[in-house]
Amino acid sequence: MIRQMISLTALMAALAAPACALTRAEIRDRVFVSAQRAQASSAGQALAQAAGRIAAGTAGLQALLREQQDISEAIVKQRESLAEFAAQPGAEAEAAIARLQTQIELGRSRLGELDQRLTVEFPEFRELTNPAPLSIAELQALLRPDEALVMTLTDDSFLYTWAVSGTASAWTRTEIEKTEIASMVQGLRAQLRVEEDNRAGMALNQDRQKPKIRGFDRTAAHMLYQHTLAPLEPVIGGAAHLMVVFDGPLTSLPPAVLVARPPEGEDTAPQALRDTDWLLKRHALTTLPNVSALRALRQAAPPRIQEARAPSFVGFGDPLLGYRLADAGGAVVPEPDQVVTRGIYEDVRRVADLAPLPNTAKELRRLAATMGVGPDSVHLARAATETAVKSIDMSDADVVAFATHGLLADGLPGLSEPALVFTPPDVPSAEDDALLTASEAAQLKLSADLVILSACDTAGSDGTPGAEGLSGLARAFIYAGARAILVSHWPVDDYAASVLTTGMLDRMYASDPRSRAEALQHSALDILADTSQDRFAHPRIWAPFVVVGEGGLDG
Asked: Helix, strand, or coil here: 267?
């Protein structure tokens, strides 16, 4: 990462220079590619480390990865020997040095060949574990006429933002401390995670003695917009669909809540909130885990063509946890001194201690009803197990929904990957340790239009960057075959969960279908425009969900 940032800083300096050997467009393109490398997250590293498990079911891929690993280990040993002989005098040492240098070069050459084979023969796997950056021209070739993409890169003192449409590109740099961005995001997230408007989120209007909704700092949300997207409006302004690749603290904030124009009125006034120029009003929004994910999504095989039929649905949630597990007679037998062995999370006691999620059962039943399917498509409580997720055939399901806890890497001691939580087994095993990790999710067989992850803690609760976990789960489900996933940034209001998810699905599967991003956009705007309750104007109600992956229409 240090080398990447040094390279990026040098290229930025070249951009600012009055003249250089490369054109400014060429330098901009190189900076854009370098920034994507610098933006590589720990999620990608975690998935790369899990490559062996992901590849276990594909013999050709497994063999290729094994040869790569063997050659890499051999080169390490050859370099160690080279250093030893370099310290020795005489013709024999010189001959050994020459032989080792030849072996190292041959090994490097073979690694290059294997890397090329991996890209050609297993492009989805390559995209999952080691995505290659896109040039501006490559990205523009993937964008549709009404689309644009923005990407940020945050270092300690500067925030860089790029914007690319099908016909234009630009970048901007703002001198702002990373800690200042984090502080603004943390403040906004604190106002978005109020549990109940009629408790912590309400204050009394002294004039009328009636509840008044808690405010949202629209000035801070506007300031973030000014630091990032405002200078790039000439590139993105005409895009109905805007794809966002945020990094750093910004990953903990749904882009929908950015404010494009200086806000007017009080932050606690419902009508002022409704009249605010939220980014959601300007664009249907999609989040991507990285820029190159668009290539994987757009170059993948087109969705299956089926005879006319009602869309299908599978749901999992409401796991037995905490007191509910005890009441159900669950007997967990953990190994307290061992946390992870052979890919098994053995201390399932920690999983069992997580709080129950009673509203998730209702949410899944509502989704099933919206999709027109029976109760046998929903797996709750005792049936909501990791074993069930892995064993049920979901290859033809149009929508797959998980309503449970979502954990980031390190969300539990020894957990190295993001994971979804299920009812703990009596004894953990490789097949079921109550945690479906990102690498296990990547091995599912899906072809879903949408995977819904209605789970809390997919992003850091205090504004701490959480995109590493989100990116890992997103990339894993996309690798498994999902076109897009829907995730929540905070525990969702029960009413909002119903309106946002069911409204989105209604629009996606209407006779005149809308894209995923547009369907979510209009569902959220419906809530914002609803004057029956003041609290509906607050972004906590209408902005928790983001679409990750393919937000546009397929085909």
From this structure: coil
DSSP assignment of 371-385 equals HT--GGGEEEGGG--
Write out 479-539 in H/E/C secondary structure.
Answer: HHCCCEEEEECCCCCHHHHHHHHHHHHHHHCCCCCCCHHHHHHHHHHHHHHCCCCHHHHCH
CA atoms within 13 A on the CB side of 180: 13
Q: Are 438 and 48 a contacting pair, CB within 8 Å?
A: no
- Tokens 């087994």 label which residue? 425
Residue 358 has which token pair? 């009673």
pLDDT in tens, the chain (555 residues): 444 444 556 556 655 555 556 677 888 888 898 888 887 655 555 556 556 666 666 778 878 888 888 899 899 999 999 888 888 888 898 999 999 999 999 999 999 999 888 888 887 777 767 778 999 999 999 999 999 999 999 988 999 999 999 999 999 999 999 999 999 999 999 998 755 444 433 343 444 444 567 899 999 999 999 999 999 999 999 999 999 999 888 988 999 999 999 999 999 999 999 999 999 999 999 998 889 888 878 875 455 444 456 789 999 999 988 766 666 665 444 444 433 333 466 677 787 777 777 778 888 998 999 899 988 999 999 999 999 999 999 999 999 999 888 887 777 777 777 889 999 988 888 889 999 988 899 889 998 999 998 865 544 434 444 445 455 777 788 878 888 999 888 877 878 888 899 899 999 998 899 999 999 999 999 999 999 999 999 999 999 999 998 998 875
Contact, 450 vs 464, CB < 8 A?
no
Q: In Å, what is the CA distance from 208 to each residue of 2, 203, 536?
A: 57, 12, 20
Which helix (H) or strand (E) is 285 found in, with range? Answer: strand 284-287
Calculated CA dihedral for residues 225, 229, 231, 236, nearest 10 degrees: -140
Pairing of strands 378-380, 313-317: parallel
- Asked if residues 296 and 124 have their Cβ atoms less than 8 Å apart, the reply is yes
- Nearest CA-CA partner of 355 in 311, 396, 323: 323
